[in-house]
Amino acid sequence: xxxxxxxxxxxxxxxxxxxxxxxxxxxxxxxxxxxxxxxxxxxxxxxxxxxxxxxxxxxxxxxxxxxxxxxxxxxxxxxxxxxxxxxxxxxxxxxxxxxxxxxxxxxxxxxxxxxxxxxxxxxxxxxxxxxxxxxxxxxxxxxxxxxxxxxxxxxxxxxxxxxxxxxxxxxxxxxxxxxxxxxxxxxx
Length: 188
Description:
This protein is an all-alpha fold. It is 82% helix and 0% strand.
């Protein structure tokens, strides 16, 4: 029930105008805010360490090494980044991709496709909470929280991969339909 109401809301606000609005926010975060945050984390850690959020695959050892390598100043900054910047960004990308999917997949029975970005957002929030917990409890060893962090991260990135594939499929379908229409019009 709640998914249907939320889907109706996303469908109602979905337009090229809102898509481009969220695209602007999405680009601002990806081009400026998130890279600056990562640079500051690296500067405070006194080394190029990166952020756990952007690692791929299931690798608890790597996550433990990264978390233990930040140091107090870098960890404190990373926690603030997770609590503020990375609390806003998932909402932005979820709406951006949700609007795109809503414009491309309009049938009511495809609600699950339109909800994928919001499911990814939930896993991103869970990943962020686990990262904050790990940063607050350094030094760490491999624990249940590290494994949960890796699972949340893996699920988030897997859903993102599926979203990109679904967008590409829909765009190829639109292109094919346009080429068929053009071909039919050229014959007549």
